[in-house]
C-alpha cells in the first residue's frame, strides 16, 4: 500500500459542466488518494448553474468551483499532474500545452449537458444522466488505479 496521491487534471473546452463534475467526483470518491482539478482550453468563465445544482443535490460542496484555463496548470509552479483526462472530443483533439512532468493522458468522452435544450427540468435531467455516466467511469478509474487508467 502506498501513500502516494494521484493528481488528475480533467480537461474540457468550456470547463463549465463535464470536467467540473469529474473533478468533484474524483475528489469525493478518491478518499484522499486522488486529487483532481479541472480546466478548459476556452473556459466559459463560470460553472454552469445546472452543474452546481446537480452537485449540491448529490451532497457535494460547490464552494470554490470555478471555470479556469488549462494555462494555470502548465506553469512550472502549478501542482504536479500525474494523469490528464479529457472528457470532451474537442479538448481531446486540441493541441495541449506541454505539461511539466509529462503526465499520462486518457480520453473518456461524455455528451455535453451544457448543450442540452428543453425546459429547465428536461435540461436538469440530462445533467443528472451525465453525472451518473461520469460517476460510473470515475468509480472504475479509482478501482483500477492510475496504472490501468487507460482501461477505463
Keywords:
about 150 residues, alpha/beta, Rossmann fold, 4 helices
Fold and architecture overview:
The chain is α/β, with parallel strands linked by helices and 152 residues long. It has one domain: Rossmann fold, CATH 3.40.50.2300. The chain is 34% helix and 14% strand. It has a four-stranded parallel sheet. Strand 3, helix 3 (89-93) and strand 4 (104-107) form a beta-alpha-beta unit. The two termini are 22 Å apart. Its EC number is 1.20.4.1. Residues 6-144 form the Phosphotyrosine protein phosphatase I domain. InterPro entries: Ptyr_pPase (IPR023485), Ptyr_pPase_sf (IPR036196). It holds the Pfam family LMWPc.
Short recap of the structure:
This protein has 152 residues and is α/β, with parallel strands linked by helices. It is 34% helix and 14% strand.
Amino acid at each position: 500500500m502506498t501513500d502516494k496521491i494521484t493528481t488528475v487534471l480533467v480537461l474540457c473546452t468550456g470547463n463549465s459542466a463535464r470536467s467540473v463534475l469529474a473533478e468533484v467526483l474524483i475528489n469525493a470518491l478518491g478518499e484522499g488518494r486522488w486529487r483532481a482539478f479541472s480546466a478548459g482550453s476556452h473556459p466559459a468563465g463560470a460553472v454552469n448553474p445546472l452543474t452546481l445544482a446537480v452537485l449540491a443535490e448529490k451532497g457535494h460542496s460547490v464552494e470554490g468551483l470555478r471555470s479556469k484555463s488549462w494555462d494555470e496548470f502548465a506553469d512550472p509552479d502549478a501542482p504536479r499532474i500525474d494523469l490528464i483526462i479529457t472528457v470532451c472530443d474537442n479538448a481531446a483533439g486540441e493541441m495541449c500545452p506541454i505539461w511539466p512532468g509529462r503526465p499520462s493522458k486518457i480520453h473518456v468522452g461524455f455528451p455535453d449537458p451544457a448543450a442540452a435544450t428543453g425546459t429547465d427540468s428536461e435540461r436538469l435531467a440530462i445533467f443528472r444522466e451525465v453525472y451518473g455516466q461520469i460517476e460510473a467511469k470515475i468509480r472504475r478509474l479509482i478501482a483500477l488505479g492510475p496504472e490501468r487508467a487507460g482501461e477505463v
